[in-house]
Every structure is written in structure tokens, then in C-alpha cells.
Amino acid sequence: MNASPEEGPPGRRPPGMLEDELLAALWATGRPMTPGDVQLHLGHRLAYTTVMSTLTRLYRKGLVTREPTGRGYTYTPAVNEADHTAQAMTELLSRRTDRAGVLTRFVSSLPPEDEALLQRLLRGEDGP
């Protein structure tokens, strides 16, 4: 079975998934974390060097900030989860030629409560 380019090779995470896991750990704790803190939060599923290099990549992309702490850094999200997710959705949509088709299928796949929320937002009413 061949994986699509967006999924990556079989047995590997899709592109961006590791970065999202680390961002989720930072969002969940709500405090600056060292690479070791992030590794511990994730249950030591990742090597320390993997966590450190991924945090460095997130820093270079502007998704986290870092402050010198001892001989290393502590990391803090530069964006909140809602903004990050909305930006990712917008970027993905902008790369598609059939935007109407994508949006139609997206909305039709939403659970009823999310569809109702989207309708309220489109009418200019406040969110949840």
C-alpha cells in the first residue's frame, strides 16, 4: 500500500503531527517548558533529541518563543490553539482548486452542534 505524499511513508507520522503534539503539550500545561518537561509530559515516547530539535523547528517558524534557562531554553507557545488551527485550515484550503467543493464537504461532515455554531458565526452572532 502506497501512502500519499501528505501522509508520508507507512508507519510514520503525517507531516506536522509531531509539531502539533509538542504544541498540544505546551498548550495543555500553560507554562514555559524545557525539552525534558515536554518529553515527560508526553510519557517519554520521544527521544530527548527529537523533542529538542522539534522545539527548535517550532521556534524558527515563530510558533513558540524561548527564553534562556540554565544551559538550555524554556519554550512557550507564541500562538493559541484556535489561531494555529484556523491558520492551518486556511492554508490547506488556499492550496485547493475546488474551494467550494472542499467547504461543502467540510460543512456536511460536521456534527450538528458544530454546523449550528458555524451558522451562528456566519450570521455575526457570538461564538460559544
Describe the structure.
- The structure is a single chain.
- The protein is mainly α and 128 residues long.
- The protein has two domains: 17-77, Arc Repressor Mutant, subunit A (Orthogonal Bundle), CATH 1.10.10.10; 81-122.
- It is built from six helices and two strands; from the N terminus they run αααββααα.
- The protein has helices spanning 17-29, 35-41, 48-60, 81-94, 99-108, 112-122; strands spanning 64-69, 72-77.
- The chain has a two-stranded antiparallel ribbon with strand order 1-2.
- A hairpin with a 2-residue loop joins β1 and β2.
- The termini are far apart.
- This is Penicillinase repressor.
Please list the strands of the largest sheet in the order they lie side by side.
Answer: 1-2
Rg from C-alpha positions? 18 Å
Number of structural units classed as domains? 2
- In N-to-C order, the SSE pattern is HHHEEHHH
GO biological process, one term: negative regulation of DNA-templated transcription
Family: Belongs to the BlaI transcriptional regulatory family.
Keywords: DNA-binding, Transcription, Transcription regulation
Pfam families: Penicillinase_R
Give a short summary of the structure.
53% of the residues lie in helices and 9% in strands.
Features:
disordered N terminus; WH-like_DNA-bd_sf; 2 domains; Arc Repressor Mutant, subunit A; two-stranded antiparallel ribbon; WH_DNA-bd_sf; mainly alpha; 6 helices; 128 residues; BlaI_family; elongated; transcription; DNA-binding; 2 strands
